[in-house]
């Protein structure tokens, strides 16, 4: 399994892009940095986008991807936008509503749409292409899930945005094939109150969350860092004692 980090930050400044991870060639986790990074040929290969929640930084490039693909006469299959029913409902109601953006689930025609919305049930293993996925409810102000993604004998978990939670750790402890946990750490410790009110983690909160993990064989990769706090976040994360923990690197590729 190859993970290409198109974006991994919780804010957008020059050189810092919102969260978007490409799994192999055809699967995306969130959609904060698709069209500024992938060329048109790469965009046309995308078949699935797993959406964690509807905050704009995680869905903003789906409309632009759809607009790019509608001009491609050779494009004859939809991009599947996958999430739980509450998340899909919010996307359809508030984004692809013909007011904020055209409804690409019926464009260019209802028979050959650019987008297809796929609702899945949380806490159930679901086959998606060559993968087995599981949506895991997380702690955030809007309906939100993380994802367990398995391919062959290898699996990862991507939390999306979350505050302190339990279900992510329950899945992590139960899945021996799990190799990596990609978890958010948005704010420095001094902003703990803001983090908890907005459903995010700090290094101190992450350290407490890691006590729920009954194993030390995982690679822990941190995402959704606020760019303006990176220097202090790096210092605070160094104090967390776990064998393999580091910040995701934008533009990097990881293999599991």
Quaternary arrangement of the chains shown? single chain
Relative strand content: 25-35%
Give the proportion of residues in helices: 10-25%
CATH superfamily: Ribonuclease Z/Hydroxyacylglutathione hydrolase-like
What is the count of DSSP helices, taking H or I runs of 4+ residues? 8
On the 0-100 scale, what is the average pLDDT?
97
Low-confidence stretches: none
CATH topology (level 3) name: Metallo-beta-lactamase, Chain A
**Distance between the amino and carboxyl termini:** 5 Å
Specify the overall morphology: globular
CATH-derived architecture: 4-Layer Sandwich
Sheet having the most strands: 7 strands, mixed
Q: Just give the CATH class.
A: Alpha Beta
Total strand count, please?
14
Number of domains: 1
Radius of gyration: 18 Å
Strand order, sheet with most strands? 6-5-4-3-2-1-14
Structural class: alpha/beta
Order of helix and strand elements from N to C terminus: EEEHEHHEHEEEEEHEHHEHEE
Describe this protein with a few key phrases.
single chain, alpha/beta, Metallo-beta-lactamase, Chain A, 7-stranded mixed sheet
What would you note in describing this structure?
This protein has helices spanning 40-45, 56-59, 62-69, 85-94, 167-174, 192-198, 203-210, 230-238, and strands spanning 2-7, 20-23, 27-29, 48-50, 79-84, 115-120, 125-128, 131-137, 145-151, 154-158, 178-184, 219-223, 245-247, 253-255. The chain has a single domain (2-255), classed as Ribonuclease Z/Hydroxyacylglutathione hydrolase-like (Metallo-beta-lactamase, Chain A), CATH 3.60.15. A hairpin with a 2-residue loop joins strand 9 (145-151) and strand 10. The protein has 256 residues and is α/β, with parallel strands linked by helices. It contains eight helices and 14 strands. Strands 6-5-4-3-2-1-14 form a seven-stranded mixed β-sheet. Strands 7-8-9-10-11-12-13 form a seven-stranded mixed β-sheet, covered by helices on one side. Helix content is 23%, strand content 27%.
């Amino acid at each position: 399994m190859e993970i290409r980090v198109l974006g991994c930050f919780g804010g957008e400044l020059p050189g810092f892009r919102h969260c978007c991870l490409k799994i192999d060639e055809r699967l995306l986790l969130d959609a904060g940095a698709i069209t500024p990074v992938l060329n048109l040929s790469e965009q046309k290969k995308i078949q699935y986008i797993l959406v964690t929640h509807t905050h704009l930084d995680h869905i903003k490039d789906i409309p632009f991807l759809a607009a790019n693909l509608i001009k491609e006469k050779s494009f004859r299959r939809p991009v599947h936008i996958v999430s739980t029913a509450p998340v899909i409902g919010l996307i359809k109601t508030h984004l692809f509503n013909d007011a904020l953006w055209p409804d690409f689930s019926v464009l260019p025609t209802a028979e050959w749409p650019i987008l297809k919305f796929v609702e899945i049930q949380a806490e159930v293993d679901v086959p998606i292409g060559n993968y087995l996925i599981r949506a895991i409810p997380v702690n955030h102000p809007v309906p939100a899930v993380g994802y367990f993604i398995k391919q062959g004998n290898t699996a990862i978990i991507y939390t999306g945005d979350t505050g302190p939670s339990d279900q992510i750790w329950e899945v992590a402890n139960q899945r021996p094939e799990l190799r990596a946990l990609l978890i958010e750490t948005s704010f420095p410790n001094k902003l703990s109150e803001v983090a908890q009110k907005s459903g995010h983690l700090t290094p101190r909160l992450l350290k407490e969350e890691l006590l729920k993990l009954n194993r030390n064989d995982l690679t822990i990769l941190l995402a959704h860092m606020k760019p303006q706090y990176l220097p202090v976040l790096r210092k605070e994360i160094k104090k967390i004692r776990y064998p393999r923990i580091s910040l995701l690197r934008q533009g990097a590729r990881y293999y599991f």
